[in-house]
Structures are given as C-alpha cells and as structure tokens.
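Propose amino acids for all 144 sites.
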C-alpha cells in the first residue's frame, strides 16, 4: 500500500502542535485521507502517586474540561469533526498507539519535541510511540 488512508495526529496542545498539525493536514490533502487527532491527559495520580494526601478529582475534572475545550477549538481549525477528536486518559505513548490500532490509522504524526523539551534527541513521547506503533510514524521536526 503506497498511500495513507487514515492519519492520526497527536497533539500536546502546546504551541508546537501547530506545525505538527499543519504537516498532518498537508498529508491528509495529498492522500485524500481521513484525519483524526488525539490528546492524552496524564492522570495526576500517575504523576504524583500517593505523594499528595488530598483528593485530586476536582482538579482532574477541571483539567479535563479545559483540555476538551482546547482540543475542540484546535480540531475545528483543522476541520476535524467531533467523532474524530479523541481525548483519552493515560500515558501518551501507550494510548496513542492503542488508539491508532483501534481506529485503523496507518500513519501517526507526532512532534519530534514537545513539553519534554529539545534536550532529548527525540521527544520521549515520539520515541515511545515509535516503539509500540502498529503503523508508520512521522516525527515532525519542531523547536529547531
Ligand atoms: P514530548 O515527548 O513532550 O517531547 O512530545 C513530543 C510529541 O509527542 C508532541 O509534539 C506530540 O505530538 C506528542 N505528545 C506529547 N504529549 C502528548 C499528549 N499528552 N497527548 C498527545 N500527544 C502528545
């Protein structure tokens, strides 16, 4: 198969998401493919474990609401319909690969770097996605 039919772009909703999405859109047009997007919310309990002796559920709900609004706003600028916008909880690299499998994506587009910074040779998420991907992965070079 030479062409891509379903492209999944992973966005961390930082400003680096824009060039990554622009590249995904260009590929979508070139292949007349379907475009889906995903943002993964990392549960606070994963980040902080039992370190904080307080109920994090209210904060988690607020994070979810904010992420949902941002993802929907971002996706609408890319003409991605609501059904193709995915907001998921978990570890980004694992969830992105699992979703790609579920929706039958044949290309995952990620940024080479994002929140984890350019100190790493390849962003930790991009690296993780690559290792578990069920399909091709394009790491769009961002942040020089
Ligand atoms: P990073 O690992 O933070 O350097 O991010 C590299 C790339 O992985 C980003 O440009 C996104 O494409 C993707 N990514 C990172 N975190 C997330 C997230 N929470 N949800 C979706 N994609 C993400």
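Proposal:
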């Amino acid at each position: 198969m030479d062409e891509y039919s379903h492209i999944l772009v992973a966005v961390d909703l930082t400003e680096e998401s824009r060039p990554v999405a622009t590249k995904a859109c260009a590929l979508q047009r070139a292949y007349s493919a379907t475009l889906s997007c995903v943002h993964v919310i990392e549960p606070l309990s994963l980040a902080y474990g039992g370190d904080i002796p307080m109920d994090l559920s209210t904060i988690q709900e607020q994070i979810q609401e904010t992420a949902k609004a941002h993802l929907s706003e971002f996706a609408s600028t890319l003409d991605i319909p609501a059904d193709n916008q995915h907001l998921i909880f978990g570890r980004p690299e694992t969830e992105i690969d699992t979703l790609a499998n579920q929706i039958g994506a044949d290309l995952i587009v990620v940024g080479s770097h994002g929140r984890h910074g350019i100190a790493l040779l390849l962003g930790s998420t991009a690296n993780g996605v690559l290792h578990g991907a069920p399909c091709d992965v394009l790491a769009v070079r961002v942040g020089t």
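The pocket of adenosine monophosphate is lined by residues 10-12, 16, 20, 38-40, 92, 110-111, 113-116, 123-126 (CB under 6 Å). Residues 46 and 112 are 23 Å apart (CA to CA).
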